[in-house]
Amino acid sequence: MKSKRAKPPAKRKPNGAQGAPLTELHGIGKTFDSGVIALRDISFSIRRGEFLSLLGASGCGKTSLLRIVAGLLAPDTGDIAWQEGNRPRETGFVFQEPALMPWASIGANIRLPLQLLGIDGRTAELRTRDALSQVGLEKFADSRPHELSGGMRMRASLARALIVKPKLLLMDEPFAALDEISRFKLNDELLALWQKLGCTIVFVTHSVFEAAYLSTRTLVMSSRPGTIVEEVRFLPATERFDPQYRTSASFAARARKLSQALERAQ
Question: In whole angstroms, how far apart are CA 132 and each of 107, 140, 160, 162, 232?
Fold first, then answer.
């Protein structure tokens, strides 16, 4: 997939943190059987159409919090109130590792969520082609995961999440293991997809620069036990669609603000 800069779609209200709440978390806490207190008294909302980042040092509970939002982990205290009563059926999750089935083709890996949802074969095939096209892997449907680079495997993992046409996309440090060039390209492509789909994204990262580049809102977490200690909001930066944005004073100011917040959180 070419790393061409995205252009904001015409006649579209910019994504931001001003949408109605999709869900609200109240007093979330989690203690593991080992006695480790991962999370304590966490409360915040997730708003429709925003790009929300959870920023904090390794081990602060970001992944545990994301898994609680996804329904993969139950909190010990607190509750989650979904605006429509339940988590959207169209929720995608991208893990830290691509977690692809090594014996299956890329197309079969991407199609798996639709099979689990009972989508008919013809519809599943069409949506698989579309998902592959969105991440630039249309020529690799029959390839096996070991035949692809790390960045391409992560694109396949993203396509698998996109195939459900997510209203909510949860991403757990998906680009952390990639080299800087691949990471930059995938950050650009993720922004383009977010603009195109208009979905809500919750993105876990420990990178100040990644959070500054992608987010409309960032929640800064303390060291374990993880709590939300600061919220930093940014208006959507149209400059992000300029190839020089990463070296601009505007981006540097964003990164500095988040870096200072992260330092205060420790």
Answer: 8, 8, 9, 9, 34
